[in-house]
Amino acid sequence: MSAFNIFDIAGSGMNAQSVRLNLVASNISNANSVSSSLGQVYKSRQPVFAAALRNVMDKQDAAGKVKVLGVVESQAPAVREYAPNHPMADKDGYIFKPNVNTVEEMANMMSASRSYQDNVEVLNTAKQMLLQTLKMGQ
User: Fold this and answer.
1) The pTM is what?
2) Dihedrals φ, ψ of 45, to 5°?
3) For the segment 26-57, what is each residue's pLDDT rounded down to a tens digit?
4) Nearest C-alpha neighbor of 37 from the set 99, 88, 100, 101
5) Burial 59-88, CB ≥16 within 10 A → b, else e
6) 4 CB contacts (<8 Å, ≥6 apart)?
């Protein structure tokens, strides 16, 4: 593996965690939204990641980038709450709230943030190692 591949791999990890952080922010910001119908209520969204391995059969190392395959909506049911005096209540007096669990989202945010920081540290360490290697030739 080339020393420069480290930058590509860590960069793809940072990109993946950035997508994850953006989805967490979206989920948390919509956690208290209210809808008058089940079809219009916000649904929690999560990223789907995969390792994009490069030529595993041709090389001894199986290093690869992180690939964001997409975003999936949670299939958990929305919260149905009886609130007949709410302005958005349906004809039966119910409002619908998103299926966002803020405790899980905060844990996701902390995990994504730390993973992003770890990738930054990998980049900084690789940069320092390459600089020290160049200084050996002087």
Assistant:
1) 0.84
2) -120, 140
3) 999 999 999 988 889 999 999 999 887 665 55
4) 88
5) eeeeebbbebeeeeeeeeebeeeeeeeeee
6) none
